[in-house]
Amino acid sequence: xxxxxxxxRVTQFIKLRKNEEEEDRKKLEEFKKITNYISGQxxxxxxxxxxxxYIEKCENERGVKDGQRNRVFYMALPPSVFIPVAxxxxxxxxxxxxSVRLIVEKPFGKDTDSSNHLAHELGKLFKENEIYRIDHYxxxxxxxxxxxLRFANVLFGHAWNRTYIDNVQITFxxxxxxxxxxxYFDEFGIIRDVIQNHLLQVLxxxxxxxxxxxxxxxxxxEKVKVLKCIEPIRIENTLLGQYVxxxxxxxxxxxxxxxxxxxxTPTFAAVACFINNExxxxxxxxxxxxxxxxxxxxxxxxxxxxxxxxxxxSSARNELVIRIQPNEAVYMKFNNxxxxxxxxxxxxxxxxxxxxxxxDLAIPDAYESLILDVLRNDHSNFVRDDELERAWKIxxxxxxxxxxxxxxxxxxxxxxxxxxxxxxxxxxxxxxYHRENANYEWPRQNxxxxxxxx
Length: 454
Ligand code: BG6
What we know:
The chain has 454 residues and is an alpha/beta fold. The protein has 2 domains: 38-136, Rossmann fold; 140-363 and 385-430, Dihydrodipicolinate Reductase, domain 2, CATH 3.30.360. The chain contains 13 helices and 13 strands. It has helices at residues 3-11, 21-33, 45-61, 82-92, 112-125, 141-151, 154-159, 182-207, 216-228, 354-357, 366-375, 385-403, 424-430, and strands spanning 71-75, 100-105, 131-134, 165-173, 238-244, 268-273, 285-290, 297-304, 319-325, 329-337, 345-353, 382-383, 411-415. Residues 136, 174, 193-194, 298 line the site of 6-O-phosphono-beta-D-glucopyranose.
């Protein structure tokens, strides 16, 4: 790639603010001047030396002194070259005259052994506090908000346990398939792609105990503790699926980038895990993720127990929903007297929809916030080595079963654009989730349930 092409690539998505266009254009020009493209080979020291010389030249031009030569390396690379590139950087571009930070993107291995191998090899080169393992879900606004919600509200803090909560669902839905990414995806599948990392990270924030402080290590200590309480997922607590074409949209196996045309890689999975500790014993945490579904949605849904000895017959269970995307929101489904002459109880909600509540809302992109964390040397929203190891332990036996196509592994088909395999409703019901309140609509509803229309 030539320099110009590189600059076009990296700046094409940068948006100028409407009212500050002039100023932003100037900033963009300044940014272009300090941005450069140095090409090289992953396995040749000479390439890294060229990079080092360039960096030193920039540092010297800017008058950066020894002790302040801070360098951040972001490895957005195929996993097969993580180790050689880390070695090349360490040998040639590492400095003791400032801080060195290495950002690594997933996949961090494919199972416990490969992940441990990667951790071991990287560990020989960089100290744990120099490594930033990115899970971009940890940079999402509503994921970061889970700790505030839980630990800054007496109301939630006290109800956050098995005495009040019946089941928890963490759901990831995408309305498109693997289109063109089949080559990568087929090697990994939806569990490695989304559940073992993004959804499990969300689970740990929902389930962990209160950390002793907001320090990165205090938070990560609690996350590891909760992961240690989760048993490996059992196949009988799993529902797996793969999408098929709907006549218009292609099925997973129609993807041209897919090599194995008999692939049994799941593009949908629902798994129930249990946390064996005092707070959560017996409460299923259902993690569901799927490609080519009917909508785009990521949310956490805590469903509370039914009211005991209910005065009003059977009212719907309370639910607290944290909508991660799109349209960030926190809402609580609760029961209320139907307004007017009726004494009926209807389900409604306390709704904090960010776009309605906050008039000057500007939610940063997850990567924007995480890269800033790296510059600030804050590891809170990055995955620690022991956390990663524990996360793999929970999924590795199941993943090996699927990889080996063992006889008790069933992959159900579902149509592109549907809600997932038809067995899904029974699956979540088995773990206690009740889809109730036929008359409830979100975010707006008419008071008279008979004419409930948005
Ligand atoms: C990535 C997965 O990590 O996360 C993708 O590899 C997935 O398959 C993506 O589409 C989802 O991220 P977001 O931020 O769009 O929800």
